[in-house]
Design goal:
The protein is α+β, with helices and mostly antiparallel strands. It has two domains: about 1-45; about 55-180, RlpA-like domain (Barwin-like endoglucanases), CATH 2.40.40.10. It has helices spanning about 1-15, 15-25, 30-45, 135-145, 165-170, 170-180; strands at about 50-55, 55-60, 65-75, 95, 105-110, 115-125, 130-135, 150-155.
């Protein structure tokens, strides 16, 4: 999460360089050299190679993107402890994964209808072969997969998204993250 926020702040600094240079004109020379180093670091980050994995979604090359079947779990588990110790709430945007670290924020894209949601991994599972992620009932509803119970999805860690993709989904990501707790 901190990495995503830092990347957004860094991108904002790069794209507002004219304003920044005006604001810094009164600073000491030592401060200017630090800002130049900082800008160079940001430029290097933005030069990273990205590949498009879906329309409007680019990710860093080499990042592990999972594609597969998602399912959801709801009422039977509501109120029980999850793998990270918190109580499962079917109305929050959370998910279970066998491989992703607990606390990881991921963008889940339904490949059948193009809908996306950001969820936080707080549990382990799914325990059905062939499935890569179990979403909370609320997350499944937002992705439009309640009727079928399963959907083909892409699971993309937020830290892998390009600055363009982050800015494209920024408002939605922020609202979804607020609904993970």
């Amino acid at each position: 999460m901190r990495g995503v926020v830092l990347l957004l702040l860094l991108a904002g600094l790069v794209f507002s360089s004219e304003r920044m240079s005006l604001d810094l004109s009164f600073k000491k020379k030592k401060g200017l050299s630090e800002v130049k180093e900082f800008r160079e670091m940001v430029r290097e980050l933005l030069k990273e190679d990205f590949v498009e994995v879906a329309p409007g979604i680019k990710v860093k090359k080499g990042c592990r993107i999972e594609k597969g079947v998602a399912s959801w779990y709801g009422g039977r588990f509501h109120g029980r402890k999850t793998a990270n110790g918190e109580i499962y709430n079917l109305f929050k945007f959370t998910a279970a994964s066998r491989t992703l670290p607990l606390g990881t924020y991921v963008l889940v894209r339904n490949e059948e209808n193009g809908k996306v949601i950001t969820v936080r991994i707080n549990d382990r599972g799914p325990y059905v072969d062939g499935r890569i992620i179990d979403l909370s009932q609320a997350a499944a509803y937002k992705l439009g997969m309640m009727k079928d119970g399963v959907a083909m999805v892409q699971v993309i860690p937020l830290r892998c998204l390009s600055p363009e993709s982050l800015s494209r989904f920024y408002d939605e990501i922020i609202l979804d993250i607020a609904n993970t707790y």
